[in-house]
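Protein modeling request. Please complete all fields; requests missing the sequence field cannot be processed.
Requester role: graduate student
Desired output: 3D structure, token encoding
Chains: 1
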Amino acid sequence: MKPSSPLVLLLGLSVLLLGVSTQGRAAPKWLVGQSDGFVVYSNDSARATRGVVEELRDARSLFEKLFPSFGARRSIPIRVVVCSGSSTIKTFSRLYEDKPTTFGGLFFNDFEGPTIIINTSGDWEFTRQTVYHEYIHYLTSHTNRYLPPWLSEGLAELFSTIEPRTDGRIEVGNPVPYGAQTYQENKPIPFERFFTVTRYSPEYNSRKHGRGQFYAQSWLLLHYLKFGETDLPETALGALVKRALLDGIVTETTLQETLGMDYDQLGRELDRYSRRGTFLRRIYELSQEERHFELDLRRASEGEVNLLIGSLLLYNRGPSEAYSKLAYAAQQLPDSPLAHAYQGYHALRQDQPEYALESFGKAVELGSESPHTLVAYVRSWIKVHDPSGSISRNLITKEDTSILLGHLFKARQIAGAFDKGLYQQIGAVWLRSKVEPNDKHMGALSEGLSVFPEDDLTAYYLALYFERAERYPEAKAMVDRYYPHSVSGEALQAYRKLDQRLVTRLAAKDGSGS
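Delivered output (514 residues):
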């Protein structure tokens, strides 16, 4: 007999527990509202909530003013959760030695996108730097272009120490703790290596191999170019950033053309700059238009609160902890695509793809515009119809291919290159379809690799396409970019098998003289 759907079980549980919830204690008082790029939940006062969101909004406005290359508005809003104290934080925070943790601020990417949690009665000042570092990563993540790590981390570090002032202005340029000291006490990374570091490089991942030095050097370079007392024009940093975005890499020629310096000259300048001991700060004032902000807050329903807490528990503690909260949300918000989507994420965490597909399908039927939900629907569909992960041809009919790709390209239209999972699922559909893909179809995967060049799964699908088209040299070149140095786990085994097949087929082709 087919087991009952988790959705049905959750609803049953919610009916049993509803009396306890409503009669035993009142639900916490939460506010909810939306503003330009923010979805806000708060159990603090409306005034304190607006102050927090205004600070985030002002930081975003200033960042986009100073770095207009990143000025496009995000189509995926950021969720801001404002908590009035540690007791609230402990209801959904991660556990350490079976006890809830607490913090002043936290940034993470939830199933449906980025989330910032701020404890207004905690040490927000202490954690602001970490939160703003990740916040800047969010602001730079939707350019549809690849940001090399030196630029991505340099911008995040540079802006992580901003100081909002009581007069509404913002101070930028405060040094990161131990940044200059770290740079001085360690051997600088040679620039021919520094500008080519990837997220797989030991300098980026390992403290033993200079991770702290890489961050320090990235911050120092951008601080020098933006705030240093130099003879460089004001546009120098902007010109270098523009070239890095266009070319994806910085060479010595790039430096000479944008800064008028070679590697050695830039190294001497940074060494001198790090030893000065003082770093200039600048104070910026935003215009009324740049500071314009409206945030209408209302009392959140019990269903909205349950969905919020349940989603946070699902991410931080797992499906068992989130079970009852998501049950209430499913019952109380039957027409909410988001409530059904989180049922899907819950089912995926429980390794129940059939029920995940049912839930995501309901969210889509209700008109979900969430790119994450659309991609998750396709991922669940493939898990259900190809449970072994065989990537067999002719598995997906022409009609289903059109439907699945329609969801994926809708997500792409809404949010652009928002996540590498989008391109992975495009590849997953095409390589299983009865419709024979061509280079035009595979162009989406090439686009994905231009934005996420370290995405070994999308690269694997593209290499598999080349193999099936008997374009073995192109397939082998793609495999060699990633195998064995940049893949691990199940991907390592898949790459190994593909590489062995390609070596055999290339040898046979050479032997035949063709």
